[in-house]
Amino acid sequence: MKPVAYLAFNAKFTDKDREFLVTYFRLADTIADFIGPHCEVVIHSFESFEKSVVKIVNGHHTGRTVGSPITDLGLKILSLIEKTGEVTPKSYFTNSKEGSLLKSTTCVLAGENGKPVGLFCINMNLSHPFPEIIKTLMPDMAHSHVGVSENFSSSATDVIEQAINHAVLEIDGDASINLKGRNKAITKLLLKNGIFELKEATAMVSKHLGITRHAIYKYIREFKA
């Protein structure tokens, strides 16, 4: 692979470069929320090494905030990339200035035309008691979102079939819905859950419920109206 001059480029950042980095801000929030409070996520911008941090979540683990500089290790990684052209992310262990053990990974963010514009870094603080870390990864039964159903399938047909089965169980378990309104209620729930975005959904739902596709379309028009 041809080496890329990561440290040599001095081109001024454009609005597109900045906009590109901003598109990763939500991903940083998502990863930090998924892994938990012991995970720090940082986005560095190459516009200024002295003030490279443009986004940070759970920065208390390293004491950094937006506007903090790139680390010496970050510069070392960039220097290595410049020499070898190797950009495959690799995990490594390091220590914060307070002595906390961190497991980290760093990914180079390439913007328009492959231009390197920043780093996406994840730091997991392993110095906390392991049971405390595991607790943040386990469901908290006190929160209502625990137990959300999600179908992990390799085919759209299987996703639709499982969604229909779940909808039928939910509607049939609702004593307030009579037999006459059953099919309409099931169709409404499936529409609410977005199942009709899948191409085969209408045919499969009509077959399962024993009604025509025209009836399904009629229900959907009524709901959308």
From TrEMBL:
Source domain of life: Bacteria
Span of domain YheO-like: 23-129
Domain Transcriptional regulator DauR-like HTH: 160-221
InterPro entries according to UniProt: DauR-like, DauR-like_HTH, YheO
Name under which the protein is recorded: YheO-like PAS domain protein
